[in-house]
Design brief:
Layout lengths: L1 H21 L6 H5 L4 E7 L3 E3 L6 E19 L5 E11 L5 E2 L13 E8 L5 E10 L6 E4 L10 E4 L3 E9 L8 E8 L5 E8 L18 E8 L6 E9 L14 E8 L3 E8 L5 E3 L2 E3 L12 E9 L7 E11 L6
Parallel strand pairs: 2-7
Antiparallel strand pairs: 1-3, 3-4, 3-5, 3-6, 6-7, 8-20, 9-12, 10-11, 11-20, 12-19, 13-16, 13-20, 14-15, 14-19, 17-18
């Protein structure tokens, strides 16, 4: 009796081991050997979409086997690009949803787009048109997108040097809207070339109207690295008015600094949680001079500095779409 029980247990254990060994990842042999077929056409639930009203577009399709699929959506006027991809035998929600965001800048406009479905290992592609009637709205506190020029309450500083530039440009390079800020120059005696201050008063209150929880506040901006130029450093300084006296004391108020080494070409999204931004001195972390607590709702001024190594010479970078959000920006 006891021996029979032991044999039964061993059989069950071996069966369990066999089941574990039989498991594998990836497509089945049947799928690998099966010719691809589209069971349900590539389609979208909307031929025009109002992203600005909170709408989304849902792409769908069904296949006769599990495949890796890729949908590319291109703006025919802006050349913006969104990529959606996945694995399986169908495209449905949530994988097939598009909320108007972009993968590669510029951002989409109100424009006609073409969505194209491609399947790995399949030569045919499937396309359909979709029109954006209103673009996606990103909720948050907009500091600057430069569409209306430079606010007269902002303060400019430009060194006396060669080829200095702190001006708004209007050309096809803009990643959002039609304008951006160009910052460029070089001097032999200093890293600072140009600077722009954004006082909180220019937004209607002594300090910025932000959540007091630094873990719920994200700072975002788009920065363009100009090809074939010396690298720039972009420095954002967040100056807090901790006692609410309407002024910022550099010896008793906290300042947090975000330094970005622009060592790439093209537009790039920078998105940082406010609580992760540190205080810098000559580029190195140091102790803040106030209460050492991140208080985004006490920011009284933001300064944007363009820095360039005097030994390298002329440097150039571009900035656009500076805003605070409650989560990392999905442009």
């Amino acid at each position: 009796m006891k021996q029979g029980f032991i044999i039964t247990v061993l059989i069950l254990l071996l069966a369990g081991c066999r089941k574990e060994q039989d498991r594998y990842d990836g497509p089945s042999l049947e799928d690998l050997n099966k010719s691809f077929a589209l069971l349900q056409p590539f389609s979208c639930n909307k031929d025009s979409v109002y992203f600005g009203n909170g709408e989304s577009a849902l792409f769908t399709a069904k296949f006769n086997k599990s495949v890796h699929w890729n949908i590319s959506i291109r703006g025919l006027a802006s050349h913006a690009l969104k990529i959606i991809s996945g694995q399986g035998n169908e495209i449905s929600a949530p994988e097939g949803l598009w909320n108007g965001a972009t993968t590669r800048f510029p951002m989409f406009r109100n424009e006609a787009c073409l969505a194209t479905l491609r399947i790995d290992g399949v030569s045919d592609s499937f396309s359909l048109p979709i029109t954006i009637k209103s673009i996606k709205k990103n909720q948050g506190l907009l500091i600057a997108d430069f569409e209306n020029g430079l606010n007269p309450q902002w303060t400019k500083f430009v060194q006396s040097g060669a080829n200095m530039d702190l001006n708004i440009k209007n050309d096809t390079v803009a990643p959002q809207g039609g304008k951006y800020l160009n910052m460029a120059g070089t001097v032999s005696w200093d890293w600072l070339t140009v600077m722009l201050d954004f006082p909180a008063a220019s937004y209607g209150s002594p300090t910025l109207a932000l959540n007091g929880n630094p873990d719920a506040v994200y700072f975002n901006c788009l920065i363009y690295g100009v090809p074939n130029t010396n690298p720039s450093l972009m420095l954002f300084q967040f100056k807090e008015d901790e006692n609410g006296d309407g002024s910022i004391n550099q010896n008793s108020d906290d300042q947090y600094d975000l330094q970005v080494n622009v060592n790439w070409s093209g537009w790039k999204l920078i998105s940082v949680k406010y609580s992760d931004i540190v205080t810098l001195s000559n580029g190195q972390p140091t102790t803040p001079k106030g209460n050492s607590k991140h208080n985004p709702d006490k920011i009284g001024k933001i300064s944007l500095l363009h820095l360039a190594d005097p030994k390298n010479g002329f440097a150039n970078a571009k900035v656009d779409y500076i805003l605070f959000t409650s989560a990392p920006l999905e442009p």
